[in-house]
Amino acid sequence: MKKKLTLLLFFLTFLTQNILASSSQVDIIEVAPGIFVHQGKHFDVDENYQGDIGNIGFIIGKNSVAVIDTGGTLAIGESLKASIREKTSLPIKYVINTHVHLDHIYGNAAFQDKNTEFIGHRQLPEAMQLRKKFYEELNLKYLNIPFEKTIQIPPSILIKANDTMILDLGERKIKISAYSIAHTNSDITIEDISTGTFWAGDLLFIERTPVVDGDINGFIDIIDKFISLNIKLVIPGHGTPTKNWKEAFKKQKNYFITLRNEIRQAIEEDIGLQKAIETVAQSEAKKWELFDVQNARNINQIYPKLEWE
């Protein structure tokens, strides 16, 4: 009997350890050779948010690894790091943040290391600092994370708007491009040159309603540039990676044009902001997830700016 109990305890311990080990990693898919993505869930920040709503991932070269966005909490960042270590023991040389939003940057703390360099838009450090208190309050309110554990790691390598940078991971070059204000004032993209894979960050939303936290005119202009790119696969900031990326960008552009045109019309007809929130772009409602809340936020952001055109 004692022997059976010992074997049972051993089995339970083994099972528990394996469950814990598997739960410490985020689910990832290899969307192209050496390119791995974890797809975030379509939740709003104030509903079921666990810091895991944006797409995050990594690229493995012959000599090193580049991480693309790290999630909304230290725990998500640590889970991503565990997933990387399941795939490779190569050094994590770069952590690249596509923009300032909290669901993309707060896993950075998991990757602090003297040999790891953090890369972002020239405006990103200032944007992070300006939003720091607000983000700390959100993480405390919705995730019960105390301020001291919501750790910002700003980039030390900066790329100014309309510039590019080439990094070599070892027989694998990636191109980082920075943009003028669009989704935010700190947007960059990453292109894996050998596979034609393009990490768009939140310059592309698939399924989930696109968000404008910067300038809608700049956002539309950038989409026009993206549609002419020679690439094969696009990884959005939210939603499913796609080879039908031109259609995805066009769908997003159509929403933005509808949104902009109808806000302009509302202003011209002296329809107030609150009424505009209830009526503008409703023809797009069935095309997107989380439409009601995100569309209202977009209108609230864009309406006052277009009043001053």
Description:
The chain has 309 residues and is an alpha/beta fold. It has a single domain (26-243), classed as Ribonuclease Z/Hydroxyacylglutathione hydrolase-like (Metallo-beta-lactamase, Chain A), CATH 3.60.15.10. Helix content is 39%, strand content 20%. The protein has helices at residues 2-23, 74-87, 102-105, 124-143, 216-227, 245-268, 273-279, 291-306, and strands at 29-32, 35-38, 56-60, 65-68, 92-96, 117-121, 157-159, 164-168, 173-178, 188-192, 197-205, 233-238. Strand 6 (117-121), helix 4 and strand 7 (157-159) form a beta-alpha-beta unit. The termini are far apart. Mean pLDDT is 92; it is low at 1-23.
What topology does this entry show?
Blueprint: H1 2-23, E1 29-32, E2 35-38, E3 56-60, E4 65-68, H2 74-87, E5 92-96, H3 102-105, E6 117-121, H4 124-143, E7 157-159, E8 164-168, E9 173-178, E10 188-192, E11 197-205, H5 216-227, E12 233-238, H6 245-268, H7 273-279, H8 291-306
Parallel strand pairs: 4-5, 5-6, 6-7, 11-12
Antiparallel strand pairs: 1-2, 2-3, 3-4, 8-9, 9-10, 10-11
Helix pairs in contact: 5-6, 6-8, 7-8
